Amino acid sequence: MSPLDPAVGDLVLAARKGDADAWDALVARFAGRVRAVARSYRLNQADAEDVSQITWLRLVSHLDQIREPERVGAWLVSTASHECLRTLRRAGRHTAADEGWEEGIASADPEVDTGILASERDQALWKAMGMLSAGCQRLLGLLAADPAPTYEEVSIALEMPIGSIGPTRRRCLDHLRVQLARITGASEGSPRRETPT
Amino acid sequence: MSENKTGQPTDDDDDDILLAELRGAVNRIDPVPPEMMAAARSSFIWRTIDAELAQLAHDSVLDDQPALTRGVAAPALLSFESAGLTVEVQTVRDDGGCRLLGQLVPAQAGTVEIRHPGGSTSVAVDDLGRFAADGLPSGPVSLRCRAGDASVDTDWFLT
After folding, report:
1. Taking the model in full, what pTM does it have?
2. A141–B46 C-beta distance less than 8 A
3. Which residue of A has its CA nearest to B117?
4. Do B40 and A118 touch (CB under 8 A)?
5. Which of B30, B40, B53 is facing A31, going by the closest CB pair?
6. Half-sphere exposure of A76 (CA within 13 A, CB side)
């Protein structure tokens, strides 16, 4: 998705005029991203729900003031990050704690039957994520939001320069491959495929 | 997805594929909870265009030096400003929910409707501009303040 997707801006303008369908479309597009931000701050489920809800309520009250409607994703990510930080501070924590992927927001248990079939591969990926450093979990967890966030949005949420996202993403995916290979015992052990010369 | 000059798959392709796999796994194992989606959609009912928005001007939680004690629920002090009215709010969390104390500046009598996603509570503002409410649910709140000719909504905040 282009960071300057004009359709997003049109949705904001339509919602401004009271179009509830346009609002629902914005939620459908960005709810995963807002939630991924909360996850990246290791909030528990209740706090993540509060952050998600206040982020959307803020957008409702600021709809008329959004200066760049096509960049509403960045606005949402910025607002959500701000509220995550506030929630941590309020609880006497000053940074995203180094709780693991599975102890944090991700209370979901891949073994539990959620009615949706998670394949063995899914479960291996989930487990491998849990073995990564907190930094890699935060970055990959955010990048794995659906639809994917822009690098600008990632940069805002994680307070990291846009230029370092690409190299860090590459390094973290290499770590993920290594952990995945340990779990599956498969031959995916080589960090990345040798490029034919 | 990118290809190099020879049309061979690149490392970037491998990374894109793995990330897409991860996205699918996260989506299946831990999707956005339906109640979170529903709450986001229903936020739209709070859209109003008749009241002036009092913007958050100060928030002790983020603007002030953090307390030295960890794990103690210190009160949060927030200040919302609009052209004609400033609303100062203190929230304290306790076992029974949240206690809220407020002050209108300039001081004047009126009413405050404490709006939260589960409903709303109205409280009176005394002649000194003070108001209070107990046992509020924790979570998002906005105050609709009416005093004299002014009708002002504070921005949403977490109690």
Report:
1. 0.86
2. no
3. A53
4. no
5. B40
6. 29
Verify whether the Cβ–Cβ distance A92 to B8 is below 8 Å: no
Pairs from B114-123 (Cβ < 8 Å, separation ≥ 24): B114/B141, B114/B143, B115/B46, B115/B141, B115/B142, B115/B143, B115/B144, B116/B140, B116/B141, B116/B142, B117/A53, B117/A57, B117/B39, B117/B42, B117/B43
Q: What is the ipTM of this complex?
A: 0.89
- Residue A74's closest CA among A13, A122, A12, A119? A12
Distance (Å, whole) CA A185 – CA A181: 5
d(CA A38, CA A46) in angstroms, rounded, equals 11
- Interchain CB distance below 8 Å, A114 and B67: no
Here the tokens at position B21 are 């796999």
CA distance B146 to chain A (A): 18
Does residue A27 carry a pLDDT above 90?
A: yes
Nearest to A57 among B22, B35, B156 (CB): B156
pLDDT tens, residue by residue, A46-81:
999 999 999 999 999 999 999 999 999 999 999 999
- Kindly state the percentage of chain A with pLDDT values over 70: 78
As given in the structure block, the two tokens for residue B121 are 């509570």
Residue of A nearest to B34 (CA): A31
Report the C-alpha gap between B124 and A42 in whole angstroms: 39
CB contact under 8 A, A143 and B21: no
